[in-house]
Amino acid sequence: MESNKNMLEKILAIGNLITQIKDTDVLMETILTEARKLCNCDAGSIYRCDNCELVFSYTQNDTLQRALQPGKKLIYTTFRMPINDKSIAGYVAHTGKELNIPDVYQLDNTTTYSFNPAFDQKANYRTGSMLTAPMQTSSGKCIGVLQLINALDEQNNVIPFSEEIIPLIQHFANIAAVSLEKADMTRAIILRMISMAELRDPKETGAHVNRVGAYSAELYEAWAFKHNIPESEKQHNKDLLRIAAMLHDVGKVGIPDAILKKPGKLTDEEFDVIKTHPIIGAKLFGDPNSELDIMSLDIAFCHHERWDGRGYPGYVNVADGNPMPDKIAPNGRAIGRTEAETSLWARIVAISDVYDALSSRRCYKEAWEQDEVFAELGRSGGTQFDPELIEVFLSISDVVQSIRKKYPDLEES
Q1: 3-state secondary structure of 212
Q2: Long-range contacts for 182-191 (Cβ within 8 Å, ≥24 apart)?
Q3: What are phi and psi of 204, to 5 degrees?
Q4: How far from the centroid of its chain's Cα atoms is residue 320's Cα?
Q5: Looking at residue 263, what is its pLDDT?
């Protein structure tokens, strides 16, 4: 095993990495990946505290992952459990004390906590050793639990976690907790911005924007895998996109209520007003000073463009909304952007947004069945949407549908 000094240096380096990540979901993925590298373990999970409950929020498992096709992701269901001393994770969150268990099937009869073998039985997996640590902020508040499973030796045999690594993992978990707390604050601020739009447009809910952000991040990751994008670049872009995609329709705050909340069909004139929301959204990021600002502006401005050039707003000046002089169609309107004239980010969000709209109930329509939604998207590749991205999106339909369950609308929850 590496010396404590080398391990501590690694932890400090990882700490610098995770403090730069802005999105909560991407951050949890990175935290778990790096923690498992430190311990050389097969699997792990992160639970988040929500009042008096723990929420199963993220998981990884190399053994189960290897059984999937390259590029595919594990599908898992979130669940809740009480924070008490009955479960292993609950005990750690409740007491603030880490647990290092050599074999969860050989627990001492005197322990108050027990191991639930239901997951092992369903997944045909064998959990052995387990190291569980509380994730505590600088104020001592426990915001979650980091659980590492099945430490491995050099021959990939399951062994107990070393006692020497416990204080190092606890230190890492606390660094991770501070980063998660900051990421939570970032998402909360964005959702408050979205809530302003929600007051204007009932369709623009926190659940909707969280789903669009999550779909977009997963679509990009699958596309990046196909294109052999380096891991560091992939994670960086995924982090930015997860947040920027949530702000795709923020320009709707500038659309009059009479149009935005109209229950019936819009007139041509009213729809022309609706079509100004990308320009309004772009103006909100009109003085970008970060990569996130630049991506957010681009997505807000271009997510209604089409692959065939029939989208909107087309080539217009953000400042006044007028067509660019050399980009005016015979009807006097701006020429639309075609194919890759629109950024990858906007093309991704365009698919995610339409998928969620078709899959969701609205005052003017019922939710479509999933088979119908995916069939419609498939037919729209090469006309409305980037055909390659549509192909990739359809290939991750299982992940996409699991995201819908993770962020249900209030009427579905």
Answers
A1: helix
A2: 182/19, 183/21, 183/22, 183/23, 183/24, 183/27, 184/24, 184/143, 186/22, 186/23, 186/24, 186/243, 187/23, 187/24, 187/243, 190/243, 190/246, 190/247, 191/246
A3: -90, 70
A4: 34
A5: 76
Q: What is the pLDDT of residues 57-99, one digit of tens each?
A: 999 999 999 999 888 888 888 899 999 999 999 999 999 999 9
Helix ranges (DSSP H) in 96-162:
118-123
Which pLDDT value is given to residue 198?
Answer: 61
Domain 4-182 top-level CATH class: alpha beta
Domain limits, the chain = 4-182, 201-406
What is residue 313's DSSP assignment? S
Q: Is residue 134 reached through a cis peptide bond, with omega within 30 degrees of 0 on the bond before it? A: no
- Indicate the pTM of the whole model: 0.88
Q: How far is the CA of 150 from the CAs of 40, 92, 93, in angstroms?
A: 9, 18, 21
- Angle, CA 36 vertex, CA 83 and CA 162 arms, to 5°: 85
Angle formed at CA 242 by CA 236 and CA 244, multiple of 5 degrees: 100
Polymer length of the chain: 413
Question: What's the CA angle centered on 169, arms 166 and 175, to 5 degrees?
Answer: 145
pLDDT at 6: 75
Q: Running along the chain, 413 residues long, what does each successive block of 10 average in pLDDT?
A: 65 79 92 94 97 95 94 89 96 96 95 94 96 94 97 96 93 93 89 70 72 97 97 94 93 85 84 93 86 94 96 93 90 92 97 95 81 97 98 96 88 55
Tokens 């590029």 -> residue: 71
Query: Can you read off the two tokens belonging to residue 335?
Result: 């020429």
Superfamily covering domain 201-406: Hypothetical protein af1432 (1.10.3210.10)
